[in-house]
Amino acid sequence: MQSEPTGPGRTEARERAISLLYEAEMRAMAVDDLLDSLPLEPDRYAVTALHGVESHQVAIDAIVSEHAEDWKLDRMPPVDRAILRLAVWELTERADVPIAVVINEAIELAKEYSTERSPAFINGVLDSVATAVRD
């Protein structure tokens, strides 16, 4: 049995998961349908994350909405929603991933793929979520 990647491999898996979460939302597709349409399946952690976010999305969105003061989920950039959903899933469902890793990875993804203000916004939301769910 192949183990899930750690370190740089997991960073790449998160990046792939974010792009696929974004694509699934933009195309209004279920994760399994999107995965079936790909020529190659993403690595195991990305697939686990996609299914995790999809199966917990109602709860994840409620958590994001609660901690994103003065921001409605549908007004956020779609990339920010994908980043926050993945990070909140990791914070709530993956106790093996340290809080600092989740938040730092999300900030780096926001710097790479979203708006100039997104890293600070995502940092604030995730810091609040982490305090609520991991304390």
Give keywords.
about 140 residues; mainly alpha; 7 helices
Strand content: under 5%
Q: Report Rg.
A: 14 Å
Number of domains: 1
Biggest β-sheet strands, sense, barrel: none
Helix content: over 70%
Q: Uncertain segments of ≥5 residues (pLDDT<50)?
A: none
Task: Say which CATH homologous superfamily is assigned.
Answer: NusB-like
**What is the N-to-C succession of helices and strands?**
HHHHHHH
Looking at the structure, the CATH topology is N-utilizing Substance Protein B Homolog, Chain A
Roughly how many Å apart are the termini? Answer: 33 Å
Quickly count the helices.
7
Task: Assign an overall shape.
Answer: globular
CATH class: Mainly Alpha
User: What class do helices, strands and sheet pairing give?
Assistant: mainly alpha
E-strand count: 0
The name of the CATH architecture is Orthogonal Bundle
Mean pLDDT: 93
SSE map:
Blueprint: H1 8-27, H2 31-37, H3 44-55, H4 57-67, H5 78-93, H6 99-113, H7 118-134
Helix pairs in contact: 1-3, 1-5, 3-5, 4-5, 5-6, 5-7, 6-7
